[in-house]
Amino acid sequence: AVAAAMRLGAVLSALRPALPLLLGLSLGCSLSLLRASWSHGAAEERCLAPGPPAPPAREAPPEAAEGRPGPGHEDFRPRIVPYYRDPNKPYKKVLRTRYIQTELGFHERLFVAVLTSKATLNTLAVAVNKTVAHHFPRLLYFTGLRSAKVPHGMVLVAHGDERPIWLMYETMNYIHQHFGSDYDWFYIMQDDTYAQAEQVKALVTHLSINQDVYLGRAEEFIGGDEQARYCHGGFGYLLSRSLLLKLHPHLDSCRNEILSVRPDEWLGRCIIDFLGITCVSQLQGQHYHTYELAKNTEPEKEEEEDFQAALAVHPVSDMTLMYRLHKQFSRIQLDRVYQEIQDLQMQIRNLTALTPAGEAGVTWPVGINAPFLPKSRFEVISWDYFTEQHLFSCPDGSPKCELSGASKADVSEIIESAVEQLNRLYQPLLRFSKRQLLNGYRRFDPTRGMEYTLDLLLEAATQKGHSHVLAKRVSLVRPLSKVEIIPMPYVTEATRVQLILPLTVQDLDFVANFLDMFAMNTLDTHDNALLTLLFIYHPYDAQRVGQVDVFAGVKAMVGELEKRYAEVKIPWISVKTEVPSQVKLMDIVSKKHPVDTLFFLASVWTEINMEFLNRCRMNTISNWQVFFPVHFQEFNPALVYRGEQTASSNTDFLRDGHFDRHSFAEACFYNSDYMTARTKLAADILDRDEVLESMEVFDVFLHYSGLHLFRAVEPGLVQKYALRSCNPRLSEELYHRCVLSNLEGLASRSHLAMALFEQEQANST
Question: Where, if anywhere, are coiled coils annotated (predicted)?
């Protein structure tokens, strides 16, 4: 009995961890059985109340039986409709749109129309354009007559007649014809109206586009029906797309039948008479708040709730008042944002205290991502040291450089902000003033922004006038703000690329490989790319070209390519010079091609491929952007592999090498952009052609064009190792850059260290 009890105790002790699981399973099975019995009973037995017999249940409609929605059914089973094409009709290829939102019928959110006149175009309309225009996605100005010169940055539509009713009629027609199918909402305002752009955009995001909306400040007609209202044009009004589409067929009738002096009354009467829709100031829980300015109003002193909540303010008598209103509303909006940030930070603190980490889990600043935690020493983000005069981490690699430009402004602003925050925290007990910046550190954390650590020497003054000098360390963060998508002009991958290849006598050994790669990656694939060779003769070789042509072998290779590809012609241009200046060579090439030509200035070591040519097309935008790729330069295989087998040439990964940031030999740009920049350069240097010898095409675009210079690493542009010949007759900067490119292209530090180590071992033995 004792042995049995011991065995039972051992079994129970073994099953004890599983007892909660067994109890849960048992309870779940029991409840499921009870529920099943109840449901069967409810299906079989009905509680019949005394009264007439219930009618027989009707059969389900055939639509519901087939999976289609019947009456009153919101959910239905989807059906797959098989594709059927009539064999008797010819096949027509379906052309799909470039963007999915076009195919799905999506529209842009808001279009804004500003009604102006010839008298106020250069005053009030300009003030509207400078204050709120950049906050709206699309804004146009409509006027009857236009002045001789349209203000810069304004899209103006002139109808040719200053009559107010005619202007409104033509404006509604124009909006329907050009934008009726592209936008969901249309906001119409006058140039003497100040509208809070962000509030208007927030309003349309809370309204349903399925209703006919006529929203604004509702006003009564003079001597008309008390129930009917029109929207006052001075405070702006909002029209939905559906209402605009329904209104357009009746505009001609409204013009002929409705008599009115005010255009807003005319439009309101037209909408009421033909659509039966009256103006409202409140819709779907959203209020259209307005504020009417009195004469001699001081916007800075307006503290009424109606003023602060207003979406539109009217009338604005002059430009100065418009700018003052914009400043005041910007301050109000900024105060709201700061208050929202404080409220959110308080909520984060309260909620974080309830988490397992407790108050220790609150990051600083509250609401900003925690600092990046590296997983290895290779991921550590280094700090840059700076003072008020110098930076000790320079872009060119030098250990110390003067603090200037944007960096100096950044340091000054961050020191000023630190002292301001200290005063805000300790006033009125203490008042701090900066004596000196002892140490400064900053680093860019991609997860949160720019971080700063400052050691400040401060003078602290008390309320009684006593002062004391102390050192204090502060930490600051400049967080990453809202990410914005920069609009870029549309470019296409079908653009023809004109390759320009300058060749000197030193490049003859590499021409064969270049032509082979060009034939394989462009001619065989029928890519839309052409090649022009630029033979650069030394004056001595140019005199002997009749007897010995140093480029005869290259010309023979070109002839073989033209025989192999009958439709291809590879022209060449011969130039005689001692100093092959890149700018002078491009001057010759530019004159022989149309202005819309897309140039790719290549080097003989470049391996052309379709992937890079497409990026050259996409990254180069006429009158907007030029592209200077940073090619990948392979290291010297003799130092990297030291007799071992080299990496496979058909690998998809970059071979041992580095991105050569000292080389600007490759460039993609349009001929028109180069000609414009070259004209400005010629006016600057006059007839001093020797200046061109110290410049590259990159310098021309950098200093003499307002275009974007896109400089980025290009993994599709790989060059094999070759020791470049640096021309000592070029400028000192270009020669120094060429030498640096050769030195850094030898091998990495580890490879060079291993080569030195092996050499020392060989010398010691």
Answer: none
